[in-house]
Amino acid sequence: MRSIKYKLTIAIAISALLSLLIAYVVINLSLNTRFNDYLKINQEKRDERIISNFRESYIKDDRWTRTSGKAVEREAESANFTISLLNWDKTPIWTMDPLNLVTRDREINPDSTLSMDQYVAYELPIKSENEILGYVVIGQFSPLVISQDDENFLNSITVGILISAFIAVFVILLIALFVARQLSDPIEKISQTAYSLSMGDLSARGNDTVDVKEIEILRKSINSLGEKLDRQDMLRKRLITDVSHELRNPLNVLQTNLEAIIDGILPATPERLQGLNSEVIRFGKLIDNLNILKQFEAESMVAKIVVLDVRQVLQDIYHNFQGLTKEKAIKFKYIFSKNTPVHILADKHSFYQVISNLLHNAIKFTPRNGSITLRLSNDDDYCYIRVKDTGIGIPKEDLPNVFERFYRVDKSRELVEGNGIGLTIVKNFVKLNGGTIDVTSNLGKGSTFTVKFALYQPSTDFAATELEEEMDFPLTFTDGREYDESDDQPPSKDT
Fold first, then answer.
1. Which end of the chain has the least Cβ crowding within 10 Å, N or C?
2. CA angle in degrees (0–180, nearest 5) for 228-411-414
3. Where is the signal peptide, in residue numbers (predicted)?
4. pTM reported for the whole predicted model
């Protein structure tokens, strides 16, 4: 199995080599084509010049002679082509033997490949005022004559291209190694972090930032996963401790008292039996809460969704909790807007459970002579239910975890009883009804839980009488007094 650095380097190098090979082939083909065009043009100019020399020679002597045009013979020998002069009737005046050129070339270069099989000749007319004076026959050993200088020039360009290609390959390999390292090193570190997490080291984190967007997102995701796993591991350990603690306390109380009653140390008075029954009830509540969480995890919780008049339900809850708040001398207020009906689609039992749990928590953590406010407000799309208390508050570092099961702030553990499941159930019930819940808190000043639900917009055929009947309940002032038609001013609106 190869590393990502190796594979990236090979991939970039192969891509670069293929690109260079294609570029080399294209450049060579283009160069040879252009060079052949250049040679062809030069050859045509040469032929025109040769014909012009023969024409001038004929005009000068007014006839062909054995020396007519002999000046170009020396050029032909040096360039390895032959020239023959023919009269107008194509009778030879003088000719060059191509075999002499082959013999001479082999004497100079024994490895010469020049042969008569390569010899090609073509005939061109010599004209003057549209009169054919004669013919010149030009023979050469290739379609295009390439001089030694031309060949050296072409070879130098080819060698230059090859050298440039090798330099480019070397540079590209260095770039490939650099790029592969820039990409692979952070990925390797992230993979090491992920491996450490999988091996149980939940404190492993990738701390080196990367300037590649996707890799940086991956690093942050792995770190976030590690934080969540670390928190879940902490909660798991706390769960084991808390569950054993919550189960052991009522069992110890039951066992100790029952053994004392059996041994005759304590009498089985109704008061003592009532206390033992309270422990059994507390034990049962814990089991019930665990069963509720189990139903949520198994997605077997069934909701009966109906249209709820939120103000009516909150009014009922407000009346039900007045006795509890009076026992602790807590000021309890319910604030809402009189003129705007608020309806949502929700399960009535779970909605009631959400608000009740939030109020129970507020009562637990609010000292005597404190205050709790139940506030209902809405905009065009949503309604907002806020439960605000003046209790002990929640530390900022604990706010993200308050809805985790069995999570309890250390300070609250010493002050009040509880098993740390209530807010977990609240969050699941809110989610079940399509809402959201948030919490804000100031340590020592209190907390505010905000539940948000989408408003139900009744259809036009929804009977007004039914709506009025559902909304028929006493309104209250912010101080808890009930409102009726004899009051001069209605309760203040919640803004």
1. N
2. 120
3. none
4. 0.42
